[in-house]
Structure of TetR/AcrR family transcriptional regulator:
Amino acid sequence: MAVQERGERSKRSILEAAASVLDERGYDAASTTEILARTGLTRGALYHHFPSKEAIAAAMVAAQSEALVVPERAVKLQAVIDLSLEYARRLQSDPVLRASVRLTVEQTSFTNPGRTPYQQSVEALLGLFRQAERQGETLPGLDLEEVTQYIVGAFTGIQLMSQVFSRREDLMDRVSAMWRLLLPGIATPGLLPRLRTTPSPSTAAHTAHEESLSSEG
Amino acid sequence: MAVQERGERSKRSILEAAASVLDERGYDAASTTEILARTGLTRGALYHHFPSKEAIAAAMVAAQSEALVVPERAVKLQAVIDLSLEYARRLQSDPVLRASVRLTVEQTSFTNPGRTPYQQSVEALLGLFRQAERQGETLPGLDLEEVTQYIVGAFTGIQLMSQVFSRREDLMDRVSAMWRLLLPGIATPGLLPRLRTTPSPSTAAHTAHEESLSSEG
């Protein structure tokens, strides 16, 4: 294994251990000692990657922007919908992303995230919405900044509610419902029946596969 | 002052002190000793009202359902909108309600709230939506349980985002934007132009008055 690759693996294993500790204790009660114990790494190896608990938290928050994968779609509103569905799917299967979102929505002594994770999501969606507008997919007179701010806020809340109601098992259904209710206020009437609000068959298969491998506990 | 009235005042002063401690430290790090210090009450008086920190938290969570005031409106969708605007206004001005919402969205050792606060909001809205449906205000074929679950989730997220972006100063604008975007997927086209998505003039005046008296700090 190349040195760089091994480094990436250690980093990922630290983030995964930190995610499980954060999930149990929350940020303030989590300790690097406990995180270390779950990785089997030395303290020196931990500090090589992350000089502090804050640095681990910051790397986790950065993982949120990595989950914002813009899919290639001719219809840009379909790209927006699919981005949100893929993000939801990752939330179901990736404990590091879940811990990252929790760090964003809770008020702890780790105050770094602030607006950044929301802003990154807004930027990713806004780029797609501007293209959608140029292609004549959106209703006239929409304030696209307002639309994207609203979608990011609404998504944040429904994934939180999905966690409380079903440990995120019903998240895909909730995201689909969001789009069915929201699209008549956003998309042109002609485009509306052509937009798919559920995961594409390939994504759905992917989800079922990953879910059988993961356990949220 | 009657004994009962004095008791209610002590209770409210404990909840307000607890709200300020929770706001600074979060649930797990908050102590009844610190809450007591801010009320000037004896420990006996505290325990008379609340036998434990959990009991204080439970009373706070109950404060959320008290904020769900169903307004009298001939058009029931207008009642739904106004309920959400009034709730948003209270969030801006009432620290106990803010602490209550924080207890609901954060994962702490206080696990009591769970679904209850969400469910109470869903029930309040669902009652109004069923009336709206009977009065022919809603589009045919809506799943009203799904609609209300979505609205409660979306509201939860936008108030969280409003807190991060502006300490909830822009909350009324965000709630108005939610309704403008959402109503075309919910209300009949004929009703749409008659629905008001901003606070009524009397509510707005009320807000300005209370805001000048309160300080979120």
